[in-house]
Design a protein that fits this description.
Length: 111
Amino acid sequence: MAWVFLALAITFEVAATSLIQRSDGFTKPLWTVIVLLGYAMSFTMMAQAVKVLEVGLVYAVWSGVGIVAIALIGVLFLGESVTVPKLVGLSLILAGVLVLNLMGNQGSASA
């Protein structure tokens, strides 16, 4: 269930970040409330995930997947550019998330 909470946290964060431009620097009250509620829900879900999963893993996955998702949304829907450095950076972020998930517990000491 912790992974479901983490997936929800990522979804809320990506939605809030995708809509932040609409708040126009937090000058539009409705969009400001929607964005802030999205972030609040994201952190609420993340707080549930860290009850079971390590906080470093949760934060790395949350931020890494969020960064990649926002970059893709920016390119696909917001007219942002695609550059080689951007693609390389996003690939490195994804690789880091994969390494943490696939090999993150190797070498950890048990108490």
